[in-house]
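ESCALATION

Customer reports they have been waiting on this structure for their group meeting. Please prioritize. Original submission:
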Amino acid sequence: VSLEQRETLDTMLRQSPLGVGGGGGDVREQRRLFHDMMAAQPLPRDLTVTTAALGSVPTAEITVAGVEARNVVLYFHGGVYAIGAAALAAALAAEIARRVEAMAISVDYRLAPEHPYPAAVDDALAAYEALLERGTDPTETVVAGESAGAGLAVATLVAARERGLPMPAAALLLSPWADLTLTGASMDTKQGIDPMLARDLFLPRVADYVGDHDPSAGLISPIFADLSGLPPLVIQAGSHEVLLDDAVRIAQRAAADDVAVTLDITPGVPHVFQAFHAVLDEGVAALDRAAQLLRAQLRARRLEPSRSES
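Update from on-call: job pushed to the front of the queue and completed.
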């Protein structure tokens, strides 16, 4: 745990054109800036990223050399439902996959404003359904996501439950954006402390994604959804983010609905700090903790049929 690392990262994020000093503008410009920023970061040499699809939904399949892929991580990238792409999330998705002996499949769901709600949920659900239809065992599957992708992961599980689909072994939610009404107290209490995000940056993207729908609808803001029947959730966030209360409240909602949940808050770090694992010890430690919990759930699900037969 390094104060110097955290301070260096905070400074870097505040200087980013997508941070609190420059974000929230034209979505096309934001997409270009984000693409250029992510593309400038070389992927680890042991990763292979392949363009693929689940049904009609485009994906990026991410494999890690030397990892026996016994499991699948179905991953949803962040980007306020308006920016980002499946392949650009490869590095973070792979860090989860390598720790749980999995191949990662990152989903290229449609983005707002061109494709507002429910396009992202429709695509995410279609991808999960196609994954099952091609023979992937749900007991060997983890659903994961970051930021908006973490909120989308929860919405996908709720929609899958309503469809009667089997649940995956577990879900990992990194800094979930789960309340598009923006009513969490940390939207104000962490204003200025968060080097990346602020309420004003969310407002245009909420309008783009929600359109004429109610932002408190459960598949838009899962903190208002019935989460009963969902698999165990592992939720991580940093104390220096305006979305801190989204993580806390989705955990509370899950607990109230009898869902097993682990809430893991790391002090002094920003939004999706795990993405900075290469320069932040806390990122590595958090990924390791999450993987330990996910592996335990995968083992438990794998043993369920033998228990029921005995």
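Sent to customer with the following note: The mean pLDDT is 95.
Escalation resolved.
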